[in-house]
Amino acid sequence: MATAEQKLLMQMIRKLGLAENEQLVPKSTELQRLLELKSSGGATNLGDYAKATICIDLASALLGLPFDTETALKLSGLRKTAYANAKRTLEKLLDINKIVGIAEICIALGLSQVQREATTLLEAYKRFAGGGSAVEIDFTHPQYATMAVFQACKRQKVKPPKTKLVGYSHLKPAQWTLLEKNWEKFLASAAASELSAKSKQNGKAMEVDAGEEVVAEKRTAGNGLKHGLAADKIEPYVSWKKRMLEKAYRELKVMELKALEQVR
User: Model-level pTM?
Assistant: First the structure.
């Protein structure tokens, strides 16, 4: 049997037009129960309607659902500033920013196939953003995990549910846009570094291969000359000319590769 608190939650959810989402009631109930265990001071001074409304608001954000703030204000009985302050207080009490991570987002949105790449991207981004920054960055904020999932979706050509992900990030649309641009710079920098590393590696491999071919050619030519002299035979001019041109071409390629390596 539903408790009085659950009945109130379901009633508020219907008034907010969110009754179709089956996950919202259990998530809101979970937050409300956790709030009862952790609340103290100012949080306990909130009325039942205000607490229920804000718990639904927070649950909606965690689930990536759209939320009607204007209706929520009317239902809560709070003014806009008081509502915002109460919401921030409850977020801190419930450690909302620590609830959402890559694993939770991927499970909630059915994106388990991008979880591993999202985790790798986030670790790389931490090195990129935190390495040369004098300001300490709080990477536990859900914006970073959310953006990592978003970028992993794009890289794997999976259509990312952007609207829901923005909700998970706890960012305003303008803030999301700025973060996305920062990630684009990071990914471009990472791609350039990776390409440069691969290019250098391939160049060195080509240089080694070309050098080995020249050495082998010299050995072959030397052995051929020895055998020719031993057999008292002279190599035809046409064959000799072709072999020498090929040798000169290979040596020229080696010189070009070395010159390119010095430029890099």
Answer: 0.45
